[in-house]
Amino acid sequence: MANRGLQHELIGADERGSRILLAEDDPVINKHLTQALKKGGFEVDSARDGGEALELFQRNDYQLLITDINMPRMDGNGLTQSVRQLRPQLPVLLMSGFSEEVSALANIGPENTSFLQKPFAIAKLMATIAELLNPPGQTRSE
Predict the structure, then answer these.
(1) Helix 76-86 vs helix 50-59: angle between axes, to the nearest 10 degrees?
(2) Do the beta carbons of residue 37 and residue 59 sit within 8 Å?
(3) Where are the domains of the chain?
(4) How is domain 2-133 classified at the architecture level of CATH?
(5) Which element (helix H / strand E) includes 33?
(6) Cβ atoms within 10 A of the Cβ of 104, count?
(7) How far apart are CA 110 and CA 41, in angstroms?
(8) 13-62 pLDDT, tens digit each
(9) The whole model's pTM is what?
(10) What is the rounded CA–CA span in Å between residue 59 and residue 54?
(11) Could you read off the pLDDT of 60-85 as tens digits, one per residue?
């Protein structure tokens, strides 16, 4: 129960309601993360691979991309590069259960990009999302 309160403290009113695109090929993780994000106050569209995620991205407006790195059809690195060609400033959160994939982040660029090593706590996910959606030094003028 304390974890739920922490999630809401980490996510400010400006971030709640943000639309997130989640790309995760593991159906159990996809479902768990989708439920957690919705409980956190986000609108979530989920895809099972990078190709499906890119199709969703081209039809909708998202404030954040959360993607696994290792997926079929198009991996998270390819998805991130494709999305960044369309919207260079879109915040991206990469996830992986394989520590060697951290080195792949060099091709993504550090700006507006974070990484979480699986498994991770939902509180850590929410804190990382809050940082990506409202980085230090940025004021919200919308």
Answers:
(1) 20
(2) no
(3) 2-133
(4) 3-Layer(aba) Sandwich (3.40)
(5) helix 27-39
(6) 18
(7) 27
(8) 455 679 999 999 999 999 999 999 999 999 999 999 999 999 999 999 99
(9) 0.83
(10) 9
(11) 999 999 999 999 889 998 999 999 99
